Amino acid sequence: MGNAWKHFCTITHHKYLVMKGCFRVGLYRQGLLHDMSKYSPTEFRVGCKYFQGNRSPNNAEREEIGYSSAWLHHKGRNKHHFEYWIDYSLGKGRLLEGCKMPTRYVVEMLMDRIAASKIYEKEKYTDASPLLYYEKGKIGSLIHPETRVMLERFLHMLAEMGEDKTFAYIKKEILKKK
What we know:
Layout: H1 3-25, H2 28-33, H3 41-49, H4 57-65, H5 69-75, E1 86-88, E2 96-98, H6 103-121, H7 129-136, H8 145-174
Antiparallel strand pairs: 1-2
Helix pairs in contact: 1-3, 1-6, 3-5, 6-7, 6-8
């Protein structure tokens, strides 16, 4: 089986897992439209070329050429990535700063992290996996502090209480407050 088919199956499975999570909390439109840009030629070609199956092809592209063209394309089109929300700062001392993300995109970001962990960890996945991956990562100082707090609260809740309780809380207490 070629890399194009393997990559297609991986991103489609990821998209399906995010959709299931989004549907469970009532984010139907976001579940349906999540990561559609991954099927665009700009992102799909890179995914095929650098496909490995156990990590993002974007990291392999980044290692080879010093940046990821697919990631730069992706983050500029998908509001569930905090990098989408980085803008010039009007304050002194900082050139760029993270803007506060709307809650529904923070929730989609959670679903994205859960799905990615399930895809790459396969049978080793636990409800703590997304938190452990987050803690190892380099999320940086450009995420808005309130966005960071919300995401971390969801990740800790998931690790400690599981999907059912976390998703029910998000649906009933977080998304219904609007």
